[in-house]
Recover the amino acids of this structure.
């Protein structure tokens, strides 16, 4: 408690110093900003490195970490911990913009600008939210770690938060006092949340814990573990990896064998399987509202949408099934699809349809369609994992989605002049071969077979 109070006091003093433009503080802030800019700006490597570290404190990364953690807790019915995680993270999102607006400090002005920060400068949002989110996740899931690993993990999380804060200084978008102020505010806010959680435990008759030593809810350790202790999904990893590599090579060969002749025939715009007729027909029948529908269909198959669906599906699978195989299956399918698409597109190099491209020029080949392949993969994976585990009639919605979603994306991409019909065929070939191979190799639903076998043995024993 004393530490949290000291952090709140430090933040208050910094706010006063910033508001009155205390000369010693401004001298240190501006001098450090200039020196760091002189060192970092001339080096492309340092600029890229600092940018990469800074992204670890961005909203996009932190949102998904908190979302995955909250999903796992909710599926495991750890409602108090899920609420703690959400409240802590949302608090940071509220405090950052409101305080920036209230204090109104301008961003640093450096000689060689290398990054841009939106809004005001004090406090640093990346520094504040990275401390809150990473520390909140740590105290929630700390009971899962063995005691000998807890201190190294604490040090690692602390180092990550410090690096994120330093990267904001190095990029010239914050002053030192912005970062220190954000850290002190984050410690104070997290301390308030932890105190409220401990008071709740006390009123419910549970013992008060030491969050940095035991975590918030030590009794929840079994529920917080990602997988069951007896899980053996890592067995035969070498065999699976070797088989997947063979399948990848054969899939790549099939795509190149199909794509190269199409790319070379009449400059990639021959009329094989109506490759020229279909895009031209769509281009001639474009309408305003159809364009909006096609835009949505195209967007639900883009990288960001597929990543979002994959992260949500992976979190639910890990939380509900408590086995590594389904998660490994999901990751392997999506990583393999991405690499197969990029490699085959680079080799084939097919031109886009000879009509107006509604999405503008694209850097990748028309063959195969990455949007369609990724959409097929993610929704088929969802059906493979969820249909056998759902007993209600609603499970067939996943099968319907595995058909309807790729069809919508495929039609949308052709309507917008981005792909030929045979590009879609190539995507179906890519996704079908790859998913089928990994289902066979990884066996993502093996736990269901094991459960059925155990029940059968119990019946035999009862007889």
């Amino acid at each position: 408690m004393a530490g949290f109070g000291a952090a709140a006091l430090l933040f208050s003093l910094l706010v006063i110093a910033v508001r009155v433009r205390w000369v010693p503080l401004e001298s240190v802030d501006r001098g450090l900003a200039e020196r760091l800019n002189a060192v970092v700006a001339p080096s492309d490597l340092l600029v890229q490195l600092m940018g990469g570290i800074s992204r670890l404190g961005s909203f996009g990364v932190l949102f998904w970490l908190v979302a995955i953690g909250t999903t796992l807790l909710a599926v495991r019915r750890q409602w108090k911990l899920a609420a703690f995680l959400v409240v802590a993270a949302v608090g940071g999102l509220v405090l950052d913009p409101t305080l920036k607006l209230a204090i109104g400090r301008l961003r640093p002005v450096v000689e060689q600008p290398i990054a841009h920060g939106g809004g005001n400068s004090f406090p640093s949002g990346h520094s504040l939210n990275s401390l809150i989110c990473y520390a909140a996740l740590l105290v929630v899931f700390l009971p899962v770690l063995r005691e000998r690993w807890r201190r190294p993990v604490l040090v690692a999380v602390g180092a990550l938060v410090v690096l994120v804060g330093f990267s904001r200084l190095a990029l010239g978008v914050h002053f030192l006092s912005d970062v220190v102020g954000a850290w002190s505010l984050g410690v104070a806010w997290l301390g308030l949340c932890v105190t409220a959680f401990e008071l709740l435990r006390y009123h419910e008759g549970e013992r008060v814990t030491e969050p940095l030593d035991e975590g918030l809810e030590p009794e929840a350790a079994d529920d917080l573990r990602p997988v069951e202790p007896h899980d053996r999904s890592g067995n035969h990893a070498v065999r699976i990896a070797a088989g997947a590599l063979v399948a990848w090579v054969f899939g790549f060969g099939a795509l190149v064998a199909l794509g190269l002749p199409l790319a070379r025939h009449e400059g990639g715009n021959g009329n094989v399987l109506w490759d020229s007729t279909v895009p031209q027909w769509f281009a001639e029948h474009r309408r305003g509202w159809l364009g909006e529908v096609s835009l949505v269909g195209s967007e639900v198959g883009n990288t960001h949408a597929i990543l979002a669906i994959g992260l949500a599906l992976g979190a639910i699978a890990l939380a509900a099934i408590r086995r590594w195989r389904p998660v490994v299956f999901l990751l392997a399918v999506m990583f393999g699809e991405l690499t197969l698409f990029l490699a085959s597109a680079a080799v084939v190099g097919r031109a886009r349809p000879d009509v107006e491209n509604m999405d503008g020029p694209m850097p990748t080949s028309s063959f195969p369609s990455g949007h369609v392949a990724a959409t097929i993969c993610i929704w088929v994976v969802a059906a493979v994992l969820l249909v056998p585990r759902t007993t209600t009639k609603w499970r067939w919605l996943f099968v319907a989605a595995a058909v309807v979603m790729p069809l919508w994306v495929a039609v949308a991409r052709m309507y917008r002049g981005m792909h030929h019909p045979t590009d879609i065929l190539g995507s179906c070939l890519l996704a079908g071969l790859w998913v089928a191979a990994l289902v066979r190799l990884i066996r993502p639903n093996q736990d269901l077979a094991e459960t059925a076998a155990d029940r059968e043995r119990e019946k035999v024993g009862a007889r």
